[in-house]
From TrEMBL:
The chain crosses the membrane at residues 23-41, 125-143. GO terms for biological process: long-chain fatty acid import into cell. Coiled coil: none annotated. The lineage of its organism: Eukaryota, Fungi, Fungi incertae sedis, Mucoromycota, Mortierellomycotina. This is Very long-chain fatty acid transport protein.
Amino acid sequence: MPFIQTAPFLAFLSSCLPPLQCLIAPIAAGIAATLAAGFYINGKYQLSKDFEIVKGAAKARRRFEQSVRDQDCSLYNRFEDQAHSRPNAVALSFEGTSYTWRDLEMAKGVKAGDRVAMMLHNSPLFMITWLSLLKLAVVPAFINNQITGPVLLHSLKVADAKLLVFDYELAPAIQESLHAIKDLGYDLYTVTPKQQVLGQLYNQLSEDARQAIETPSFFGYVEWQHLSTEGFPRSIRKHIDMKDPAALIYTSGTTGFPKAAVMDHGRCTMATTSWGHLCQIKPEDKVYIALPLYHSAGSIIGVGQSFMTGSTIVLARKFSVTNFWKDCIAYDVSHFQYIGELCRYLLNAPESPLDKKHKVKLAFGNGMRPDVWSKFQERFNIPTVFEYYTMSEGTGALLNIARNKRDQGAVGFRGPIIRALQPGFRLVKVDFDTEELIRDKKTGFCIECEPNEIGELLTMADNKTHHTRYVGYFNQPKMSQAKLVQNVLAKEDVYMRTGDLLYKTADQYWYFADRAGDTYRWKGENVSTAEIADSMGRVEGVASCTVYGVSVPGQDGRAGMAALVLKDSIIQPPTGTGAIALVDEAALVDFVSRLSGYVGKSLPSYAVPRFIRICEQELETTGTFKNKKVELKKEGFDLQKIKERMYWWTPQGRYLPFGEAENQEILAGRARL
């Protein structure tokens, strides 16, 4: 701060002009006292840290308000500004090839419409397709490229689009549900160049897949080289409002039945501007993105910030421990984006001379766990970690710029300035069994948590300001409404339930504790327990099912575990004291085989429960018939506590019996989960 420089200046003046000593001494003493008080207050309340975050948010808000005044709200216009001001600068590097801002702008022409579904891998074609749709004022729906079958069909149904564009590598997954997709009214086009499809990919495919290529009714080609860049001036996007959707992005937490969060132009503008300022990204910087672009972290925050800063994006097709630091060094990367699991994978890799040869000065992302954080910054010499907590459908964000040990481990910091400007973050008490919010019997309002007490995070959703405006999910009004709760701390107030458990310290550092019972995180994805239980309950032989996450040594997040009660035709429960269950062994073997086939086909790999517990008693429920999971979670897959049969998901893609030998593989870190 400027006033800190005053003290050495006065000391210099005092030594040079002795006659003025009698006048300067009292002034210097007063300023010294002020400085001492300032340092104390700053040390206690972290005002400079608070101010740094507020400054970035203020710049984003000014940009937001200016765009509204100028009727210049489209996210595409931010990209177009860069393309016009620096057309020949490198905007994107991908697998050894560079693309200028002009290159990305040139490829246009996806058919205009209300919405277009995109099912693509990380590549320049993802960027080109996305930008083309934005230029046409069309809303892209980012489809998770890992999903298939019923989950894919549900996602497409929710998008309610008429066009699906896809990478040809994903053709088998699409063809599997082709008739149902066609019944939804979709036309299909691949963005993969025709020459590539008919060349190298064709030779790698099965005979059935080759036949699909030769079927004219299956799909068409988006042939970029024949499309014109003319006819789409900035004026065609003048009608776009900050509340209009810029993209539909499916939450990973609803793997069984994804929800499409509406990312409007306003939220995108605030996010892309804020992250650029907070990460201090400049046009000359290079930002490495290895996260999937179908999530808002990779696309809106990771890539989107470049629309504001003019930085170069170094895009990886997917995350690779082997290639991560090689890429950072080869492309002279200055920033990279992470999720917590990514950092743990890098830390678990053998030490290498490459660990510190890079020039990375800041990593930004979410989910960096406290047990990894310090080791990660020290081993890889990362000066600054910018950790944030937010969600696609959320109404706010927690931010923490970490440069020292005091900052490490927290998902956010909310000093007095931030709390005054954004008061709508509350931690309230919740019943961990029923997941109901606990209310004061006299007032009826929720009860806020004390420092270091775990509670559920609620964020204000009153729609009075842009950053508290709740949009919800596209085409799913009931699910949107289910996220809201009223009369939290005052009559008729409205907050959004995040479903996440956090705690905060007395000095306002906020820490992630766990996810509420209906959701857990695994392999970088959020998994809905209710929807997975519903899906598994469809398998013949299941009488009841509950799904929950369990901690696994050396792994981030929680692995899925399902407790199943089977029908009497497979296992008859004990009838009295000392009795044992009667098991039809052949029927049980058949059931486990059918269950393996079902989950392997119906669920994305990250959503498949890694452990199965075959219960010999009915599952305990609450008065409202919700399964109690607390004891199940505590027992996890501990063989000392569980005497019932257990199975685990093996690399062969099926459930096999789980015993002491398999348990030792996990504890030794050798098991592939």
